[in-house]
Here is the input.
Amino acid sequence: MVNRMDSTKISEEMFPDGKIILLDGRVVDCYPRTGKEQLPYTDKERKEEDKERFIKNAFFFLANRERILTDSRMFLCPVPITSGMSISGTSGFENPTLGIYLQWWETCAGAMFTDKKGRRGLLYKLSGSSLSGHNICGVVHEDGTTKIVELHPFKDYRDSFIRINNLYKSSKQKYQAYSLQQVLDILDHEEEGDRDYAHTINEQFQSQVINVLNERAHHLNVRIEMLEHSLSNARKELREEKLLHFYDRYKDLELRIFSKVEQLLQQKRDLKMALRRGDYPNQVYERQVNDITKRINEAEEKLEKFKSEEINRVFPDENLLFCQIESEVNKIRERNDKTSQKDHQ
Here is the structure.
């Protein structure tokens, strides 16, 4: 299986000297330009001829995809199609090449498609607005006919083309490139008489579907990992909130009960002093002291009951002891205090 590279994570600076790297990881040798070579399309007439030549032979180039991608001079063959945006102009679309189109067709969902009538199409021109998303794009069919289509979402097509095109920005300037006519001449010369181009194109369309599905699966897996990480963090934060909330409620109840118990103990001390003064007979004293002792025990039992029942209710899936909760709460608060101090420095 092809080890496809992510165009968002590679840059031309990663290319070895004298080479280009394709999206499937293959490294292709390049041939430096000589000083006498001119950049393409200074001749407007030739530009129009090659524009028609590219559109007319788009499916032929697709059928010879593997051959073209093995030769950097074919890969870097300039294609005089002008795409652009209403605001930024042609920025990012400048000087597309045959190899860029072939890689884009293969990896961009919808760049190769079959319509409801069963006609296959290749996108060859992108023009639109980055603000409204309105666009007027060009499609060529197998019979060479073209039509205008509107793409949704346009941003996906635009961004994917620009990413791939920009990967080879300086390579187009540094290395030799054939013209479209030279590419056609070479392919015609190498053509095998019994070659089944229809079958090859079928394979390219099927391969594109598989590649796009694999790409989607990859992005979905990455998204799932991110969501699982976020969910794990959310669960951790929720658990910490539960720990802090439980502990604060417990300490609040503990404070109130301890205050009540202290009042009751003071009442016992006061009764004892009154007994010594002879204010109460022994029977009255004993009855009142026993009542106070009972109320103290009930208050302490209430605290213990809250502790055990609330731990089981709030943390039903964990066999937590109160001492563990207290230890975790102290660590959480110590960590939060350190974070707060750093934020204020």
About this structure: DSSP finds eleven helices and eight strands in the chain.
